[in-house]
Amino acid sequence: MANPRVAIIGAGAAGLSCAHELERLGCQPVIYEISRSDVVDYIHRVVVKIN
Fold this sequence. Notes:
Blueprint: E1 5-9, H1 13-24, E2 28-32, H2 36-50
Parallel strand pairs: 1-2
């Protein structure tokens, strides 16, 4: 398979390093990251309602 696509969850140091290495090896990394406000919204919608 030429240029396989690989999903990377998180654009932190580890995710970016992983993307760099995968690209170097001929893969197509796709980085998924959510913003801090999305995390806060999720916590308020799901976690707070459970408690």
